[in-house]
Amino acid sequence: MITADVLALGLGVEPPWKLVDQRLETDKRPHELRIELAADRGAEFPCPDCGRLCKARDFNSFTWRHLNFFQHHCYITARVPRTDCPEHGVKRITVPWARAGSRFTLLFEQAALILVREMPVLAAARIMAITDKRLWRIVEHYVAKALSGLKLEHLKAFAFDETASKRGHNYVTVFIDLARKGRPVVFATPGKGKQTVSDFKAFLEAHGGKPERVVEVVCDMSPAFLAAVGETFEKASQTVDWFHVVQLFTTAVDEVRKAERRQVELPDATRWAVLKAHDGGRLSDKQAAALAELEAGDFLTAQAWRIKEKLRWVRAAETSHAARWRITHFLRHARERIADNPMLEKLRQAVETVEKHQERILQRWTSTYNNARLEALNGIFKAARARARGYRNVATFITMIYLIAAPLGELFNSI
Fold first, then answer.
1. How many Å apart are CA 218 and CA 188, to the nearest integer?
2. Structural domain boundaries in the chain
3. How far, in whole angstroms, is CA 245 from its chain's centroid?
């Protein structure tokens, strides 16, 4: 097999296209392998719209970046014809080795997507020796194409939560299908609040889903979210995710710690000692010592922490009846410990919030779905931020969330 045949095989070149020239330009750094393709004289080409074979009207030269040939950058050049279709007129054909409008080959773009799934975009761009802007355009094209084919006709339960896309008041709200075990994200949109729920309803309908088939929605205790779900998915039951109950009290405990620290000196490592779980060996020796000192000194922070930790007892209930009894006991216990102490105001507000949404919280024990999966969204958000390190806008953050966590099964098959 001669060199030209090897290169043609690697490029996937098929008739009427053939390799007519190759040269290695060693005067450039890195070296560049230049490959020229051409079509047989008199060949007919399919119309881009209907596929009808037509004669070429004229040609224009184009160049595409291909995968490296060993350590050398590789470029493909070809004179691409325009066909003169009797039905659709004069149009430029799409070559088999690249998508329309791209200056990269399909194999190059596939390699780029694989890298972006495994490392930050900036790092992948350096490896591919292209700018991060050009790499983002590749990723955004294929994610949007795969997302357009997402089918949601079987969606019956979903959960959603918001996250800050970057510092400041820039938020993204992400929706997951509770029935999906892997890659559960089905929709992500800029902003937060009621409008995001309306946006998801429109997206659901556009992808074959029906709002009236949704039987359960899981979210936090945001009044805006709960009101929007009630108005938009009227037949669905509302479940407050347990993760947000714990998060509510964890935030309250931290506020108590901050307030007490302004008045008395707290042990070193108190902050993480009261925020981390005390079991499972997650506390360092210094944090464990700080927690023991807090309890021995009967600090208000320790009192708040003990109330928060009692949530574990509530969560361990095995039946909805037991859960109702335990949460009632928990609320009474918390109110007695808080009393009228102004330092524990944030904790009092947390108790009142749980009391207000008690029925929605108890839905957790009757739900047919694992509604604790919202906690896993935090991992998705962190991974997306790491992959999109250096991203410039909310759109790129959303694209990365889709790439790593949406069921885009046809993503690579579409290349």
1. 16
2. 3-103, 153-264+299-406
3. 23
